[in-house]
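To the wet lab folks,

You asked to see what we're planning to order before we commit. Fair enough. Below is the target structure as tokens, and below that is the sequence we designed to fit it. If anything looks off to you, flag it before the synthesis order goes out.
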């Protein structure tokens, strides 16, 4: 494992990792800091050390640290990803590695979460409408002791509550 970290640190810079995993680097060599909610690129890259550092929040690190942050994985998983994606060929760690989850860049994850949220919202609206349509078929008399009415009412209340909290 030490050999893996060492190989990655020697051969992959934080800037390489930024570019590989979707963190856009400006032509001034700066990027939006993933460690704080950065609106102006505060993260700079040091060519000599291969590390990065944020001038706003002070966070930073090497390729492994940055990759771990960008992909939301542990440092070991980050090092394994870099080993694989940069073809470093450090095999002793590769042989022992468990399956590596496919990482997402922050931008890709944000888009996926937005899509999922929209889908969930549509699902709740549909559920509310379906339940309301069932409830509308009942009168105060027929609704009494009706399991179907009770079930629809529960579905309606649940969807209504979830939409309120959305
Ligand atoms: Zn920062």
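Sequence we intend to order:
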């Amino acid at each position: 494992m030490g050999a893996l970290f060492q190989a990655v640190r020697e051969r992959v810079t934080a800037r390489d990792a930024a570019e590989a995993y979707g963190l856009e680097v400006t032509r001034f060599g700066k990027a939006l800091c993933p460690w704080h909610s950065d609106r102006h690129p505060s993260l700079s890259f040091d060519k000599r050390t291969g590390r990065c550092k944020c001038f706003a929040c002070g966070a930073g690190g090497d390729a492994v640290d940055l990759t771990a942050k960008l992909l939301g994985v542990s440092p070991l998983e980050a090092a394994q990803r870099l080993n694989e994606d940069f073809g470093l060929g450090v095999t002793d760690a590769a042989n022992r590695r468990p399956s590596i989850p496919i990482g997402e860049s922050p931008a890709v994850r944000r888009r996926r979460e937005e899509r999922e949220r929209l889908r969930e919202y549509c699902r709740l609206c549909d559920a509310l409408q379906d339940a309301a349509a069932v409830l509308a078929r009942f009168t105060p008399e027929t609704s009494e002791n009706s399991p179907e009415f009770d079930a629809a009412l529960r579905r309606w209340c649940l969807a209504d509550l979830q939409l309120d909290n959305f």
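Structural context that might help your review: The first strand starts at residue 30 and ends at 31. Residues 2-103 form a domain with the DNA Primase; Chain A fold (CATH 3.90.580.10).

Thanks,
Computational group
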